[in-house]
């Protein structure tokens, strides 16, 4: 795995950046645009992914970075769930749901790979695996 000098080099952060743009475009118009609570939660969850990766990386502590990656991964699940709900209640089309899911899964997988790397290469992270 590559060594990062800036969080902007992390592939999961780049994918999350792409996801944020897509999420903000999801509920621009239609009935979902008027559901402020769902729209806000979806946007905040997507932004949270990027912020947690950046915050954890900038802490320069492997344990903190790992913990923040776990939070980011949780936010990926939250985004997936909210997109699913928005599709089920008719706020967004099934095509938009289908387009978002691979992005969410890609980011989640990238975060898992980075977490696994930390678990196997950093002694202070070993044993923190929960699953």
The CATH homologous superfamily name equals 23S rRNA-intervening sequence
Principal-axes geometry comes out as: elongated
Q: What is the C-alpha radius of gyration, as a whole number of Å?
A: 16 Å
What separation lies between the terminal Cα atoms? 22 Å
Q: What is the fold named in CATH at topology level?
A: de novo design (two linked rop proteins)
CATH class: Mainly Alpha
Number of domains: 1
Poorly predicted parts: none
Protein topology:
Layout lengths: L10 H16 L9 H24 L2 H27 L5 H28 L10
Helix pairs in contact: 1-2, 1-4, 2-3, 3-4
Written overview of the protein:
The protein is an all-alpha fold and 131 residues long. It has one domain: Up-down Bundle (de novo design (two linked rop proteins)), CATH 1.20.1440. 73% of the residues lie in helices and 0% in strands. It is built from four helices and no strands. Helix 1 (11-26) packs antiparallel against helix 2. The longest helix has 28 residues, at 94-121. The protein starts with 10 loop residues before the first helix and ends in a 10-residue tail after the last helix. The mean pLDDT is 94.
Q: What would the keywords be for this entry?
A:
131 residues, 4 helices, de novo design (two linked rop proteins), mainly alpha
Offer a concise description of the structure:
The chain has helices at 11-26, 36-59, 62-88, 94-121. It is an all-alpha fold and 131 residues long.
């Amino acid at each position: 795995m590559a060594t990062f000098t800036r969080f902007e080099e992390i592939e999961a952060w780049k994918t999350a950046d792409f996801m944020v743009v897509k999420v903000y475009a999801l509920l621009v118009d239609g009935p979902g645009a008027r559901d402020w609570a769902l729209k806000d939660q979806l946007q905040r969850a997507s932004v949270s992914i990027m912020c947690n990766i950046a915050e954890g990386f900038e802490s320069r502590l492997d344990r903190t970075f790992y913990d923040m990656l776990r939070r980011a991964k949780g936010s990926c699940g939250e985004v997936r769930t909210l997109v699913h709900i928005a599709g089920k209640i008719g706020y967004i089309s099934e095509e938009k749901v289908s387009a978002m899911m691979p992005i969410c899964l890609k980011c989640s997988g990238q975060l898992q790979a980075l977490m696994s790397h930390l678990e196997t290469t950093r002694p202070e992270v070993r044993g923190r695996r929960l699953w």
